[in-house]
Specification:
The chain is α/β, with parallel strands linked by helices. 42% of the residues lie in helices and 14% in strands. The protein has a 3-stranded antiparallel beta sheet, with helices on one face. A hairpin with a 5-residue loop joins strand 3 and strand 4. The longest helix is centred in the C-terminal third of the chain and has 40 residues.
Length: 252
């Protein structure tokens, strides 16, 4: 306002300053990120999980769905929600800015009814059978080497056991950290080796069996030889007789 002296009053100056301040606010809003503009809402319900320090993929997906549903009118298109193993969620907006939500606000540990804690280590870890049985010479009396093989096989199948004891018949006792035990019967761990099948030698297979037929044949051969000798003796005697008879006639 002009007071007649040509000077401008303080009111005009204040009006101009206010106008400048509004311009600065507008510029500030234009430079803010999506994370500055958006305040994510928390889901109405938490996701109950088995282990709040190690969520399964299914549990993570459920947390993500809850966040997106609670903020369906806030999150711009292209926003990504990522959930960590402990339930913490990171919201990444299209401009690259981020918001985070603590896992405690998103997940809760399922209540333990106390049954699991009351179980022994043996109950929590049922005995597993090895993939293959150990072959032994005598299933009623294993050698120390065979016992060691059974122990190794059982340990590999049951890493939770702190000790494995195997007796001379192959029965195994699994001992756990709390002192509890599991047992595996020998017939599930060992098998007796099969006796080798004897194969006849090549010479024995080709040699004819000495049976009664061959014996009879030998007898027949001998009989034939004996008969032939008799015939020859008879012919010789007859020839000798003729020679003597002829000799007598000539002497006369």
């Amino acid at each position: 306002t002009d007071d007649g002296s040509g000077d401008t009053t303080d009111d005009d100056t204040n009006t101009d300053d206010g106008s400048d301040d509004n311009t600065d606010d507008d510029n500030k809003d234009d430079s803010s990120t999506d994370a500055d503009k958006i305040e994510p809402s928390l889901p109405s319900d938490k996701v109950e999980v088995e282990d709040d320090e190690n969520l399964t993929d299914e549990e993570k997906e459920e947390v993500k769905d809850n966040i997106e549903e609670a903020n369906k009118d806030k999150l711009p298109e292209g926003t990504d929600v990522d959930v960590d193993d402990n339930g913490d969620a990171t919201i990444t907006y299209p401009d690259g800015s981020k918001d985070t939500i603590d896992g405690d606000d998103l997940v809760s540990q399922k209540e333990d009814d106390g049954k699991e804690e009351s179980k022994t280590d043996a109950e929590k870890n049922p005995a597993n059978l090895p993939e293959n049985k150990v072959e032994v010479d005598n299933k009623d009396k294993l050698s120390q080497e065979e016992i060691n093989k059974v122990i190794d096989a059982v340990k590999r199948a049951n890493p939770e056991a702190v000790e494995v004891i195997v007796d001379s018949k192959g029965n195994a006792t699994l001992v756990y950290k709390d002192g509890s035990k599991n047992f595996i019967e020998a017939n599930k761990l060992v098998v007796e080796k099969k006796a080798p099948i004897k194969v006849p030698s090549q010479n024995a297979a080709n040699r004819p069996a000495a049976n009664s037929t061959n014996k009879n044949a030998n007898k027949n051969v001998k009989t034939g030889v004996t008969g032939l000798t008799g015939v020859l003796a008879t012919l010789a005697a007859a020839a000798g007789g003729l020679f003597i008879s002829k000799k007598k006639e000539e002497d006369k």
